[in-house]
């Protein structure tokens, strides 16, 4: 057991939890103090009762979400889970934004004091103190940072409202052509529709999934695939999700793989059974040979690839998948975790299709750099990536052929029902000869 790894996770987890708890205290304390200046007793009491109600609802929703059972006090389709997810996320990032502005203000005051102190050379000892007081009391600076603090605190809430109301269900079709090494002429132009990270839950309804399925069918794909995370938790309606997925239409059929949330919900076997009953195939460390226009394609699927075990030790990625790779035809891998791409390239798999990241759900661009929370878990956030193909992938002499990975941005959300800069995605992949 890796004690250092466990200790690091414990420290990071406790630190993050402490920040989340303190951010809640920060906002509730601020709201409570704000109402103290209100002249109307009835209005003040009503506002404080609202604060207490918000605390109660948030606490119940969080405890309910952490329960491991399949029954919940709050129905999953209820507005409360969505509201609480948004509130906690906005409160956390709003708190960080406010503290950042306050840190800038403190730094400005410190620099101003030092600057005044260097300029003051008068013999009277009280002069520097008088000048420092003037700096601290500067009304222009005070009003500027007060406005900046208010704007920083409000920005996450306003952004979340937009991300919930506008971008969360703004499904986008992304078309991408991917060059495949040694692709037979017959497979050139073959089309694959990919859905991922549906997360049917209180944040996304069966009607929403049906709309995405209809959009995928309108693309007339030759093959349809779904790369994991059909639901979020054990209480979510897996059967309803599979019932919508089965409406995907493609001549070569519908295939899928399990994601990490199927593990959390203990639904891996159930998903496989429901896929089979619906006439589809969930690939679990197995492959299927597809015939298209007289040529063949090897489709491989694996369950979610964990990178570390319970004790923190590393787990080999795609263990046992080497025997599923065919040398006489192109290989496509369905693996929910994009971090399996490095090993897939080494094994000679020409194309990997993944999800998992949601594209970070929130993406901002600062100084020509796109910042995404997904950067903390993978180098493969969204879109198309390439690595050298074959056993020399990590060697000094790289082969000319390339292995490609496409990371789908997903349909659903986790945590807060918000997307900003990362709209949900239906992908149409067209295979091309490299």
Description of the molecule:
This protein is 42% helix and 17% strand. The chain is of the alpha/beta class. It folds into 2 domains: 1-167, no CATH class; 171-433, Purple Acid Phosphatase, chain A, domain 2, CATH 3.60.21.10. Strands 1-14-2-3-4-5 form a 6-stranded mixed beta sheet. α6 links the parallel β2 (191-195) and β3 (223-227). The longest helix is centred in the first third of the chain and has 41 residues, at 79-119. It is elongated and about 80 Å long. Residues 129-136 have low confidence and may be disordered.
Give a quick set of tags describing it.
Purple Acid Phosphatase, chain A, domain 2, 2 domains, 434 residues, six-stranded mixed beta sheet, alpha/beta
The helix/strand series, from N terminus to C terminus, equals HHHHHEEHEHEHHEEEEHEEEEEE
Distance between the termini: 45 Å
Looking at the chains present, what oligomeric state does this protein adopt? single chain
Overall structural class, as computed from helix and strand content, comes to alpha/beta
Low-confidence stretches: 129-136
Superfamily (CATH H level) name of the largest domain: Metallo-dependent phosphatases
Helical amount among residues, as a percent range? 40-55%
The CATH architecture of the largest domain can be given as 4-Layer Sandwich
Radius of gyration: 27 Å
| Whole-number tally of structural domains | 2
Any idea of the CATH class of the largest domain? Alpha Beta
- Record field, number of beta strands: 14
């Amino acid at each position: 057991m890796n004690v250092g790894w466990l200790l690091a996770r414990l420290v990071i987890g406790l630190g993050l939890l402490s920040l989340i708890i303190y951010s809640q205290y920060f906002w509730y304390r601020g709201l409570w103090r704000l109402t103290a200046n209100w002249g109307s007793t009835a209005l003040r009491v009503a506002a404080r009762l609202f604060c207490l109600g918000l605390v109660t609802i948030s606490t119940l929703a969080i405890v309910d979400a952490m329960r491991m059972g399949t029954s919940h006090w709050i129905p999953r389709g209820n507005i409360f889970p969505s509201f609480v997810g948004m509130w906690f996320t906005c409160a956390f990032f709003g708190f960080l934004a406010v503290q950042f502005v306050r840190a800038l203000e403190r730094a400005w005051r410190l620099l101003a004091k030092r600057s005044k102190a260097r300029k003051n050379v008068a013999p009277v000892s009280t002069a520097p103190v008088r000048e420092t007081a003037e700096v601290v009391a500067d009304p222009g600076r005070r009003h500027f940072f007060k406005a900046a603090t208010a704007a920083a605190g409000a920005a996450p809430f306003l952004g979340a409202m937009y991300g919930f109301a506008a971008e969360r269900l703004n499904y986008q079709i992304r078309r991408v052509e991917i060059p495949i090494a040694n692709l037979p002429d017959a497979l050139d132009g073959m089309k694959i529709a990919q859905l991922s990270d549906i997360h049917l839950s209180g944040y996304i309804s069966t009607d929403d999934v049906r709309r995405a399925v209809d959009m995928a069918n309108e693309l007339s794909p030759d093959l349809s695939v779904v790369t994991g995370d059909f639901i979020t938790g054990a209480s979510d309606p897996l059967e309803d999700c599979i019932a919508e997925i089965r409406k995907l239409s493609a001549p070569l059929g519908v295939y899928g793989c399990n994601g990490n949330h199927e593990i959390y919900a203990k639904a891996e076997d159930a998903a496989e059974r429901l896929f089979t009953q619906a006439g589809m195939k969930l690939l679990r460390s197995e492959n299927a040979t597809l015939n298209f226009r007289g040529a063949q394609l090897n489709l491989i699927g694996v369950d979610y690839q964990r990178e570390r075990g319970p004790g923190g030790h590393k787990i080999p990625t795609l263990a046992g998948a080497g025997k599923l790779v065919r040398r006489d035809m192109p290989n496509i891998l369905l693996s929910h975790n994009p971090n399996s791409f490095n090993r897939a390239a080494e094994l000679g798999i020409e194309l990997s299709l993944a999800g998992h990241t949601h594209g970070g759900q929130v993406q901002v661009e600062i100084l020509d750099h796109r910042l995404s929370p997904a950067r903390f878990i993978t180098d493969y956030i969204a879109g198309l990536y390439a690595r050298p193909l074959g056993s020399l992938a990590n060697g000094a002499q790289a082969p000319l052929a390339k292995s490609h990975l496409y990371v789908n941005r997903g349909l659903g959300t986790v945590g807060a029902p918000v997307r900003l800069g990362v709209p949900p995605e239906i992908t149409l992949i067209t295979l091309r000869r490299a």
